[in-house]
Amino acid sequence: MKRASLAAALCLVFGSATAQQGDGTQFSTKINVWKPNKVEATPERIRALKAPPGFTVSAFATGLKNARIIAVAPSGDIYVSRRDQGDVLLLRDTNNDGRADGEPITVANRAGAHGLAIRDNKLYLVTVKELFVADIQKDGRLGELKMLIGDLPDSGQHPNRTMAFGPDGMLYLSVGSTCNTCNESNPENATLLRISPDGKQRTIFASGLRNLIGYAWHPTTGELWGFDHGIDFLGDDVQAEEINKIELGKQYGWPHVYGANEIYPQSTPVGEITKEQWKARSTPMVLGYTAHAAPMQWVFGAGSAFPAEYQGDAFVTMRGSWNRVPASGYEIVRVRYQNGQPTKVEPFVTGFLTDGGKTHIARPVGLAMAKDGSLLMADDANGVIYRVAYTGGKAGMPAKAPAGPLEQQTSKGTNVPLALKRPETDAKGQMTVSSPSFAANGMMNERYTEYADGVSPALSWKAVAGAKSYVIIAEDPDAKPALPFVHWVMWNIPANVTSVPEGVQEQARLSDPDGVLQGLTTRGSPGYYGPKPPPGEAAHSYHFQVMALDTMLDVPFGADRDQVLAAMKGHVLAKGEIVGKYAQKQKPQK
After folding, report:
1. In the 8-state DSSP scheme, what is residue 477?
2. What pairing do the DSSP bridges indicate for beta strands 485-494 and 514-518?
3. CA gap 432, 464 in Å, rounded
4. Global pTM?
5. 565 pLDDT band (50/70/90 cuts)?
6. Are 226 and 116 within one domain?
7. What is the structure's pLDDT at 146?
8. β-pair type (459-461, 499-500)
9. How far is 31 from 239, CA to CA, in rounded Å?
10. Does 2 score more than 60 pLDDT?
11. In Å, how far from its chain's centre is CA 397?
């Protein structure tokens, strides 16, 4: 079917879409579904690729089929994941001729192999639900793959996890959404996770990220930047692919807000949160790019063999649209930076779209700087790795980003006293707190932990005269390295409520009792997050602290413990706690 007739036929199927919900929000648009046909990447078509003056584009390796993510070791060895084949390949260029030596070597086999990261002579590999690590041997092959995590969230629409080590030495792992737009039941979906290299510590770094495949730290500022995938089915030009500066604890809009804080018409936040309230809590994009271009791997070029004018800029692969006329993406773009801020996105390598946009020879995915300073790009359609080199450039690996910004963000709120011992909760009165779920200083049942049901225990307390609201903060002072670990933050509990039942909803706002708000735990999710002490450690103590206030707090949903404590300062009438304990003896099976 020709392109014009295909578009017309699809319009008959999809027509002009209208999304409307009860609050009066309406959006009407014409929807296209169009993906150019794949054709062979012949030498003639490769020679037709376009790059800025002084740059050459050539085939580094061919015949690799579904080549996805690229990682380059300090030795110069190149690792490529193949999702459809479920393996990782090793490629080398020992004679420095700009082409891979001989046939690739298969060094790992795991179903759904995708994201790769290298640190301390170890290669990390992530599939949909598992994170593995293996030692890199002298010949570039891998030792035994060892599973570090086996319970990453289910995938749905966006199963392709990616990873990168931050300047703080922690592993950052992206988990996409299960859908185009929906309220996720698992708070780890549509997030960026922060994980210790041994896999034992894991928190949500940022949320509201629909499908963050490409991200990296600026080599000068140390700030984290990424390109998130926009929402589908809003038309050819909406939603723009969005560049975000990603910071700890921030929410980036999805699924209810997108782009420059525009409201998505169809979805509805849970807990009777309004879209305006969701918008107020969301961080808008910094810069947008053509809708549906599908941003993939992101690298900064500082220290590469590229000209000085490119230093500090980023390069991103755009895999290409399937729902836009004309097609977008199918290119490598350059993100220009000035004074540490992105100012413009522009094409860098083009020509992967052929025959006037009716066909394509590549869908760019992987992107990495080789040891010789060239840029390597993996195509998952025809299985070619392309090499983009600057004539006369000197070799050099990208510079390391400073750790300061990350350390400032992640050290906030750690190594502090428990809430009841902080000056923000100074009070003359004492409260009696009890629980039908566990005895004071007694062991908690496993069902209240993340090793089992993960439901919150029931709590009750005696009413305090003059109280207008109550606050609950649960903390573990024995957790390492985050001292204390925050397991629960709940505020604006009405004065006539003196108990909470077992199994409170794990969402930012409760509708019964109406208006009760819950904040972020150290895990990074709202609502109760149960104990999860490392197996074999002595029992941890879990302090369920209750405070009576003479006011309701004007603090937005999703706030953290320190924001709530700051707001309650000078308003605490009385306080009390009950302490439960838990130890995990047996290591759970992954």
Report:
1. T
2. antiparallel
3. 10
4. 0.94
5. very high
6. yes
7. 98
8. antiparallel
9. 12
10. no
11. 25
| pLDDT value of position 434 | 98
- Tell me whether residue 362 is in a domain: yes
Q: Which residues contact 567 (CB under 8 A, 6 or more apart)?
A: 553, 554, 555
| Statement: residue 9 has pLDDT above 60 | no
pLDDT of 24 over the 70 cut: no
* Angstrom distance (rounded) from CA 372 to CA 56: 14
Q: How many CB atoms lie within 10 A of CB 39?
A: 15
Same domain, 263 and 295: yes
pLDDT value of residue 7:
35
Nearest CA to 158 out of 245, 235, 255, 244 is that of 255
> Can you give the pLDDT at residue 35?
93
Q: Say which DSSP state 139 is in.
A: T
With 0-12 CB in 10 A as exposed, 13-18 as middle and 19+ as buried, what is 2? exposed
Helix count and strand count (H, E) for the chain: 5, 42
- Domain housing 562: 414-582
Q: How many domains does the chain have?
A: 2
Cβ contact 67:409 at 8 Å:
no
Q: Does the residue 161 lie in any domain?
A: yes
Nearest one of 295, 236, 318, 327 to 34, comparing CA atoms: 327
Cα 552 to Cα 261: distance, rounded to the nearest angstrom:
28
Is 491 in contact with 555 (CB distance < 8 Å)? yes
Which residues make beta-bridge pairs with 459? 500
In a domain, 147, yes or no: yes
* 3-state secondary structure (DSSP) of residue 13: helix
User: How far from each other are the two terminal CA atoms of the chain, in whole angstroms?
Assistant: 48
Strands 429-430 and 572-582: parallel
3-state class of 379 per DSSP?
strand
DSSP string, 303-322: TSSS-GGGTT-EEEEE---S
235 residue type, one letter = G
Cis status, amide bond into 239, omega within 30 of 0: yes
Give yes or no for a cis peptide into 284 (omega within 30° of 0): no
The Cα–Cα gap between 249 and 245 comes to 12
Out of 409, 427, 448, a domain closes at 409
- CATH number of the domain at 464, please: 3.90.280.10
Beta bridge partners of 26: 20
Last residue of a domain, one of 368, 389, 409: 409
588, part of any domain: no
CA dist 582 and 457 (Å) reads 13
Q: Quick count: other Cβ atoms within 10 Å of Cβ 443?
A: 12
Q: Are residues 421 and 400 in the same domain?
A: no
Sorted by sequence, the CB contacts under 8 Å of residue 64 that are 6+ apart come out as: 80, 82, 89, 104, 378, 383, 384, 385
Distance, in Å, from the CA atom of 438 to the CA atom of 427, rounded to the nearest integer, reads 26
473, exposed or middle or buried, with CB in 10 Å at 0-12, 13-18, 19+? Answer: buried
